[in-house]
Amino acid sequence: MTSRAGQAIELALLRELLESVADEMATVCMRTAVSPNIKERRDLSAAVFDGAGRMVAHAAHIPVHLGAMPLSVRTVLGTIALGPGDVALINDPYAGGTHLPDITAVLPVFAHPRERTPAFVLGVRAHHADVGGAVPGSMAPQGDVFAEGLRIPPLRWMRAGVEDRDVTALLFANMRDPDERHADLAAQAGALRRGRRRLEHIAEREGSLSALATKSRVLLAYATRIARAALHELPDGTETAELPLEVPDVHGDPAVIRLALTKRGSRLEVDFDGTSPPVGLGMNATEAVTHSAVYYFLRCLCPPGTPANDGLMDGVHVRVPAGSLLAADAPHPVAGGNVETSQRIVDALWLAAGSLWPGRMPAPGSGSMSNWTFGPVADGPSFPTYYETLPGGGGAGPAWDGADAIQQHMTNTRSTPTEALEARWPVRVERMTRRPDSGGPGRHVGGTGLLREIRFLAPAQVACLMTRHDEAPPGVAGGGPGARGGVRLVRGAHAQRLEARGAVRLEAGDLLRIETPGGGGWGARV
Amino acid sequence: MGAGDAIRIGIDTGGTFTDVVLHGPAGRVARKVPSTPEHPADGFLAAVQEVGGLPAEARLHHGTTVGTNAVLTRRGARLVLVTTAGFEDLPWIGRGNRDDLHALAPSRNPPLIGDGMSVGVDERIDARGEILRAPGRATLAQVRAAVAERDPEAIALCLLHAVRNDENERALRAALQSLGVPVHASAALSADPREFERMTTVMLDAFVSPTLRAYVAALLEGLGGAPLTIMRSDGGRMAPSEVERAPVRTLLSGPAGGVAAARSLTARLGVERALSFDVGGTSTDVAWIEGDDVPVRPSLRVGPFEAGVPSVGLETVGAGGGSEVTLDTGGALRVGPASAGADPGPACYGRGGPFTLTDAWLLTGRVPAALLGGDFALNKGAAREAAKPLAAASKSSVAALCEGVVRVAASTTARALRAASVARGKDPRDAALIAFGGAGPVLAAETAALLGMQTVLVPPDPGTFAAWGTLLAPLRADVSRVVASERGLASVARTLQTEVRRTLEREGARRVALRVELDARYAGQAFEVTLPYERRWQSEFHGRHAARYGFASADRPVEAVRLRVRGEGWETVDADAGVRVLARPRFTTRRLTRPKRGPARLMRADLAPGRRVVGPVRIEERTGTTFVPPDWFAGGLDDGTLRMEPRR
Q: ipTM of this predicted complex?
């Protein structure tokens, strides 16, 4: 067999093996977790890394975890000398994290117990329904990271497979619903152990874990080749885009994301020079989130079936100005950077790419995950904290209308069924429909937003973290903008507009009406 | 199979072929006839003729793809959906997620109903089943007019929380019945407490309803009163009247037949644990079989739709004999998911098809140059020509490429085996692999080797095994009821058991086995745990909750939510003991002469029980080919099953 044929086969076999490990970890975590956010909405991801923390295989569920998890894992490896059976936790947003609710659990896999460097490292990241802080759900806009929730630097949680009870006590003393948190973290650890067992089993067939680890690196070059081939086909050039974030920066000026997108040969450069300094209210993105957004953009340009690993970004250069709102440092608040600003970065990439490759790119969609949470108040009945992101209109493209009420870009969670929601929380959903006439007009029409009406049967603390209430999702090539979003509190005959980013107490009988933005239109109407 | 049985005929309709197996006192006959997708009843009746027509007192068992095809081609009833006001758009919103994570344009599968065909009703039930608003007479009349105006061919009804209380659904159903088209209600069909999934289920049910009613009517007319049962998605059988009530339950019943046959094989051979390995042209279906148990999952996936009706727990990957072989832009070899289909088919069919797994098998000698006992000739030259561009692109010989394709195919189908075993905490090394379908026995040993499996079993006539399974599957019926309190639980259980027993006896069962299960939860919880219903069910509940969710609260009150009774029935009185074959007999080895190139050849009929051969050898029969790799043995068992195991 010649080497090229050998490689074509080897690549297919290795990829299958390592992705099956990541898939199995994700499945185990989903099955054994307790909170609907992980079990039902599948807000988690799992990945296999080599000993140096390079991601070689990933079970794709949530795009925003893709580019971010490797940074978290490398931070852990650089901080703690993990031994066999140790599980580390991290959610530190300034060290590879996204925002506090995303907790990553990390387990090293050693070829020999006496070795100091692991052959592989496994990671499972999941969005927890609460990690403490001022407001239930840990997603409400705050002034700094301390009010957002508990920040976990790289921390050894299990030593040789045994949970450190002191750490457990400290963590769960600072979170709401400690039983649920504990069960969800245990599900992550169980998934990691399953992944290790699978890797060891594969290694029995492949010779050894270290041989397998060495071989697995060809997958990185493989992804690089696919990304480069995809880029090579596209026209060269540079285009810029600028989008407002709808919030003031620390100096009181309207914050903007600016970028220059350059494509030359099979290389891509994204320069965020000119982007504003940090903002208040949790809308800062960490550098990991910014990288994830670019990673996602690149992945969308690649063919179906492209592997998700660190090799993909090899031909891509990302420049983020230090200390800007896209590379926030401590203690700037970041809850919304992961879920809102990340969408705006993608919108900006979409617009610049739309100018560069007009026949290929659709208009930006709703551009907001329309996050909101609610939890109990001190003087009302108790219930768990609820968190959801809502779908909005998809952008129209050069040859198609935008999809209605659909999750886009950096998230793809499923909505909680109304029947499950009402069984567990004191609310009644009165309407959930497509929002009429909310798609941007044009030759091709943007998708509609969502209209959701929820009646509260008990007092509750509600927090919103949304954008696109002031600035409409833009249309392209002459297409019109999608409708802006909005949240109203209806109390009796009185309707009051709520802030896009803020918290409010609702009383029993109140109705919350949420309208999510429509997608941008494409082309002038004929 | 019990002695003194009347003649039984099993018919499994597939996309290309209709398989038929006749079993009677004189033995067994298995045949394949072409399917007739435009008039599916014709192919069925032709299959009956193929095995000698319909003898008196014959029973017919049937697995059909009529419903599945209607869904996949979206050719079904013009539907109206009736649902709780405020939720009319749910078919277009779904769970809000998109199908492809990385498509430039996010999109989702469009629903089975047209724009404007969804009608809202002013009614509401809460999560505990309390009726907040019942549809009054004026509302019912209004809804009826709105539905009639849309001129439906079938009506799907799905109201919020109907699984807690279906009074409003029943009132609407009564009001709509007089429109003269089938009315299908969600709670009568599915106990799934997720409204979008249940709505999808009832829409599927209504969508295929007129087509299946017409099909079953044509079959009954053609059979002139001979007793007929139809395979269900969960591997049981049901009467034609049940098809009319819940046609969605026929979806994917073909693969279920294969699993029923595999389960019967394991029982006969005394195999404790097995994985069924059903490889067709485009996909591979796998199920974990343990003892007498086949996993049944609460939902069913047909194309892009997920229905909340029980189905055999199959794991599927998009790789089969017809899967296309490609080289991606990163230089990796891929087998599937694109498939050459039945037309043009693989390159070796000589109709200009692409290079596929079957072509690689042909060129490496794993399959013969003519299939179906010589009726279907394959073109080696065309296969080799189709391989050349790929071989050139990967700078390798055609032979090396083909060996690589086989390895990649084994690793791809192994994914389904892992999903059915390791992902559920089962060790495949403890299980036997049961290979069938047109392509399963070719690939089985090489895939088993990847997972460290020690035994592969190939039944006789592997290509018609699913049709054989329809003869072995039990009749099945189930019913569930929401219970308001623990008081009276026992009497509800008795009522339901009687109901299921009567249903099965009406369908011809003379022997019935019932299983009673309870869905329970901690008071206030939204999720239920299913457990066997017995006197000490509360303590069992805590244990199961801990196993599933990681904790239990012994002092928290537990509430019963739903009772279910599942029944199986058989038309014969005696248990299906059959011949119990020694699972690990002593074989004597038979030497074969090997050709200069490729594996040795053997006709399956020439391998007597108790004899074995050493690979590489290709064992041929009319409906399939088994490949025994180097370092593997294949031996004949008394019942005609082929047993393969690695040489130690």
A: 0.90
